[in-house]
Amino acid sequence: MNIPEELKYSKDHEWIRVENNIAHIGITDFAQSELGDIVYVELESLDEKLNEGEVMGSIEAVKTVSDIFMPVSGTVIEINEELESNPEMVNSDPYTDGWLAKIEISNPDEINDLLDANAYKKLIGAE
Q: What is one term from the GO cellular component aspect held by the record (predicted)?
């Protein structure tokens, strides 16, 4: 199970990488493996300001659909348009090519509420 040390994680299995006040967001390797083969990613929240915990989109796998939640509050400034034609990138490379969105963080203090890699490993039982 790939759980990069430099990222932060939500209890809903999203990861976040912060650079200045911009964050890349995706789903974790654990989440994509639990979902199975991803066939569609829906992110219609471009330019929307969303609060922590609000739904920003959904991921459809062969047997299920799962919501994607905002790990911190902010405005969605970019979505990964490559996923429209290649949703399987979330399965093959969830932390780089399979990123979902970039957000401009509106409340940086919320980052402190996220899990580090060790806490996320404990959450999913991967210690």
A: cytosol
